[in-house]
Amino acid sequence: TLGTQTDYRDGEAQTDPYSPEYVVPSGSVPELLTLATLTWGRGLPAGLAEVEMIERAREKRAWEATLPAMDSASNTKKRRKMMEDMERKEWAFREQEIEKLQEVRLEVLKKMLWRQVENQNELVAMRLDAHWQNHQKAKEEKIKKIQSDCALMLRKLTAKRKNVMGKLERRDIIKEYTDFASQPYAPLSRIGYFPDNHSEHYVVKNFYLNTFAGLCELEASLPESVTQIKIKAPKPKQTVTKTGYVKRSARLEVALGQVHQ
């Protein structure tokens, strides 16, 4: 219909061009019939090669018209010589065509080989790059490990060299309390301190919560609004308007109640 649009162009669905039937009058040889072997997609539309073929066919027909008749021995000999010369020209032309075709094939083969070499080079470069990246990552990880081990060993040597002679040092209380990783803030259990043994010191002891007299005193100090709760009954919703109509929300609640039941 008019409203339908196809997914393809008309040119994609077009068949070969129509060739009508023809009738050749007796005694006439149209030149157009020499192109009957050409079809759409195979020689049509005509290109440079087809034009050259048409020109050669015209030259050959003109040459055939100049051939002498075979009515005498001299004419027959002359006709044979002309035909041999034309045959040599045809063989030379065919050799040229074969050489051109071989050159085209050679160029295509060269392009394919160059493309194959380029692809192989790209693949080799990608592999080398990946191999180099892996070596770089391993190298960086090794360097980081060496640097961390070096820093650790330097810290250990620095700690050992603080008191090389084993002299007794006085306690620096200010330095200990400025360092939150020192013994006053984080004592070690290996020096005889067990924080779980004195856990009862952290228990909250309150007179108002642990004794009955404290609870009574705490209850007496609270206002009546805390101990005696007053509950107000909710007021019923107005389901009827001033004019006497039932509200839409009330009708909806009734319908929902019925559905729920």
Structure description:
- By secondary structure, the protein is mainly alpha-helical.
- The protein has a domain at 46-153.
- The chain contains 8 helices and 2 strands.
- It has a two-stranded parallel sheet with strand order 1-2.
- The model has no long low-confidence stretch (mean pLDDT 85).
What is the terminal-to-terminal distance?
56 Å
Q: Can you list the strand order of the major beta sheet?
A: 1-2
Strand content: under 5%
Count all strands and give the number.
2
Poorly predicted residue ranges: none
What's the shape? elongated
Class from helix and strand fractions: mainly alpha
- N-to-C order of helices and strands: HEEHHHHHHH
Whole-angstrom Rg: 56 Å
Q: Describe the biggest sheet?
A: 2 strands, parallel
Number of helices: 8
Helix-residue proportion: 55-70%
Mean pLDDT: 85
Organism: Nestor notabilis
Subcellular location: Cytoplasm, Cytoskeleton, Cilium axoneme
Family: Belongs to the CFAP91 family.
Pfam families: CFAP91
